[in-house]
């Protein structure tokens, strides 16, 4: 029977009260319920404007997309809409912890904030005395995209002359490919998708990872009868929304782009007058593409010739074609070449001339925020070594090249990232973190795979518990995320940790230290004649350039105003080019003179006949949201998608445990047999916690950290593997 007596009811009530008290109970501004503005802090180009409900008890309730923001347009992803589940999660870190047993043993003791910060500072000083300041490596990334809470760690790095941080893991390849052609990292107003007659969504599963792209694309279809084209490597939710879906082999995007441009020249779709004015060498490109036929591309991409011809005719005949180019281009070793090739289509067709036409990847180059005080740039020293974020495993295991032939890293502070889970070459990463001579402090919201291997763990605030400022690379707004609820008394901001360490390490008198979040935000806004209070009143700033600037009507971002069909792969400045001392990365000498397919990818061989991509899951975001019960239930379990032909050939049935491996290691997953993938291609969605996998090792055991040409990156979707049923 499902019943209980009065004593049980009383006991349940007491437990519920204890549970509530253990959670983050926010209590400021008690009174009437209200709806207030914020901004999504997570690593997504949409950077959605949010309307957050705050109850009379001061607790956060539901979150909605702001209907007043013209890009968010009232729509946000389901995982952020459920954010209260994360904020009030019973497993959230609530107090500082110090390791008691061996590394990774899970044995922790309580420690006060002052004692924890003292211990971190002491270990940093000890590392510096033994091996020099470069033995300390502050390590961070995009767990929050708030500029104050994310980037203040750089100020401490520069003040103390600690090892530099080359943030290669996400944007580099795509940004580099775009700027190689356009000369600037900006493009048409992404809201113009709604004014397009054909929206090409290429290299992003927007339904799962950039929902607002779909908002504007679907509006174009409803209001204008626009066609939606989706180009990706498997049949994901975005492809299901497409009028034309092109499923190609991983790493073959440039071949498709070249064939489309071949058809444009062949069939008269190319805008020769536009290219004569705006491009560097259209005649050379046309001659180069003479042999890049749809038949040639079909053999590389796995698409049918008819599919390629249909796509080329659609965009060729549709002047207002909007190419929305995603971050999938960053995940392949030839991604910069692929991005440049896809971008070049808009120039061949002259699509840039029209509202609702052109190509867009990121607006990250438009925002004009002054970050010198925030990041301590006035005392940054370019001669200090810079270590590649993607190669953390090699760095921590003593690889001389990865260490730039310098001394070891023996102390780290980690904020806003979870490298033991998300970084390539996971076995090397874990091996490095288990070193007895490495001290690690992790400032986190949950006990992540990285926190589990730390010496000290500090509890961190969430986005509604502090002030910060955001910029939306996938759109055009600077947005304020003000503090809305009070954090637990034992939880601290990233800025607090940096300021307190600066005091203990003797650099708190340097410029940029001693400022509040609100003061930092004001100092970033001189270009807008606005301070924190003004931005709080306005909620956001629309920074979108005018049509002529956004569409490069006055010329592209090179001195001669010409789009580069012939890129200078190692001479062109790029938004995140590595320090000059590091030089160009990877097999840059193999990069082509004109747009072309180049096989600097991990192509299958006899021992590794499959290509593996580790694509995003809909309800996770990198390793965030994996702690939420609702997200885990929606995703199920770690699985690998296998085409039915490959399953039959390997005697694999739905739900079987299979093993994937390569030279980096091997892991076990459950099989999901589906024709959503092409034969020879495997897809593992989501970065699950390592502990969710059968053997306690995650998918990044199989991904590589070799540098991507020409300016670095991490090729998470570019892995050859073997597959067998266990």
UniProtKB/TrEMBL annotation:
UniProt keyword annotations, A-Z: Iron, Iron-sulfur, Metal-binding
InterPro entries: Asp_de-COase-like_dom_sf, MoPterin_dinucl-bd_dom, Mopterin_OxRdtase, Mopterin_OxRdtase_4Fe-4S_dom, Prok_Mopterin_Oxidored, YoaE_C
Cited SMART domains: Molybdop_Fe4S4
Superkingdom of the source species: Bacteria
Single GO MF descriptor: oxidoreductase activity
Family: Belongs to the prokaryotic molybdopterin-containing oxidoreductase family.
Protein name: Molybdopterin oxidoreductase family protein
Gene3D superfamilies: 2.40.40.20, 3.40.50.740, ADC-like domains (2.20.25.90), Dimethylsulfoxide Reductase, domain 2 (3.40.228.10), Formate dehydrogenase/DMSO reductase (3.30.2070.10)
Domain (4Fe-4S Mo/W bis-MGD-type) ranges: 33-91
């Amino acid at each position: 029977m499902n019943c209980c007596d009065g004593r049980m009811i009383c006991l349940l009530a007491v437990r519920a009260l204890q549970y509530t008290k253990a959670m983050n109970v926010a209590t400021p501004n008690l009174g009437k319920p209200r709806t207030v503005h914020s901004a999504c802090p997570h690593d997504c180009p949409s950077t959605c404007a949010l309307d957050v409900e705050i109850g009379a008890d001061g607790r956060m309730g539901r979150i909605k997309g702001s209907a007043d923001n013209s890009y968010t347009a009232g729509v946000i992803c389901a995982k952020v809409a459920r954010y209260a589940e994360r904020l009030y999660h019973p497993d959230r870190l609530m107090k500082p912890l110090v390791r008691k047993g061996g590394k990774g043993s899970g044995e922790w003791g309580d420690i006060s904030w002052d004692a924890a910060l003292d211990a971190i500072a002491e270990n940093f000083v000890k590392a510096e005395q033994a091996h020099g300041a470069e033995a300390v490596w502050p390590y961070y990334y995009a767990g929050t995209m708030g500029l104050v809470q994310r980037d203040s760690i750089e100020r401490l790095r520069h003040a103390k002359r600690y090892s530099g941080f080359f943030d290669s893991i996400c944007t580099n390849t795509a940004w580099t490919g775009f700027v190689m052609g356009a000369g600037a990292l900006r493009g048409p107003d992404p809201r113009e998708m709604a004014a397009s007659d054909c929206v090409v969504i290429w290299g992003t599963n927007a339904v799962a990872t950039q929902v607002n792209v779909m908002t504007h694309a679907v509006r174009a279809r409803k209001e204008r009868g626009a066609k939606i084209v989706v180009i990706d490597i498997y049949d994901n939710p975005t492809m299901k929304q497409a009028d034309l879906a092109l499923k190609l082999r991983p790493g073959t995007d440039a071949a498709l782009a070249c064939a489309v441009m071949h058809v444009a020249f062949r069939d008269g779709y190319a805008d020769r007058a536009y290219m004569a004015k705006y491009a560097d060498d259209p005649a050379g490109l046309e001659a180069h593409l003479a042999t890049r036929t749809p038949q040639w591309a079909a053999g590389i991409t796995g698409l049918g010739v008819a599919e390629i011809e249909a796509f080329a005719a659609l965009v060729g005949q549709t002047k207002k074609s909007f190419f929305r180019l995603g971050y999938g281009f960053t995940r392949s070793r030839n991604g910069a070449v692929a991005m440049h090739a896809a971008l070049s289509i808009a120039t061949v067709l002259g699509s840039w001339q029209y509202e609702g036409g052109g190509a867009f990847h990121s607006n990250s180059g438009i925002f004009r925020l002054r970050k010198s005080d925030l990041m301590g740039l006035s005392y940054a020293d370019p001669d200090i070594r810079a270590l590649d974020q993607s190669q953390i495993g090699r760095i921590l295991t003593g690889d001389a090249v990865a260490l730039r032939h310098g001394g070891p890293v023996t102390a780290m502070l980690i904020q806003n990232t979870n490298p033991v889970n998300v970084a390539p070459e996971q076995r090397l990463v874990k091996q490095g973190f288990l070193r007895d001579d490495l001290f690690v402090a992790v400032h986190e919201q949950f006990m992540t795979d990285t926190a589990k291997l730390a010496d000290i763990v500090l509890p961190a605030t969430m986005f509604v518990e502090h002030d910060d400022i955001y910029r939306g690379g996938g759109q055009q707004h600077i947005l304020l995320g003000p503090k809305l609820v009070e954090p637990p008394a034992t939880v601290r901001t990233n800025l607090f940790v940096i300021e307190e360490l600066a005091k203990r390490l003797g650099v708190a008198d340097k410029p940029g230290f001693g400022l509040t979040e609100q003061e930092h935000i004001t100092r970033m806004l001189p270009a807008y004649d606005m301070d924190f209070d003004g931005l709080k009143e306005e909620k956001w700033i629309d920074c979108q350039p005018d049509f002529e600037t956004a569409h490069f009507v006055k010329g592209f971002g090179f001195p001669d105003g010409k789009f580069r069909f012939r890129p200078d792969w190692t001479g062109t400045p790029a938004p995140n080019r590595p320090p000059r001392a590091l030089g160009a990365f990877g097999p840059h000498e193999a990069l082509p003179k004109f747009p072309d397919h180049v096989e600097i990818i991990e192509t299958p061989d006899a021992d590794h006949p499959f290509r593996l991509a580790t694509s995003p899951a809909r309800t996770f975001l990198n390793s965030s949201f994996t702690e939420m019960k609702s997200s885990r239930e929606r995703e199920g379990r770690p699985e690998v998608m296998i085409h039915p032909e490959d399953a039959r050939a390997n005697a694999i049935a739905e739900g079987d445990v299979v093993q994937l491996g390569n030279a980096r290691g091997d892991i076990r997953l459950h099989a999901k047999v589906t024709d959503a993938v092409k034969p020879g291609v495997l897809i593992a969605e989501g970065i699950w916690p390592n502990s969710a996998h059968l053997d306690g090792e995650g998918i990044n055991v199989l991904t590589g950290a070799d540098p991507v040409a020409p300016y670095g990156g991490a090729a998470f979707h570019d892995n050859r593997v073997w597959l067998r049923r266990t």
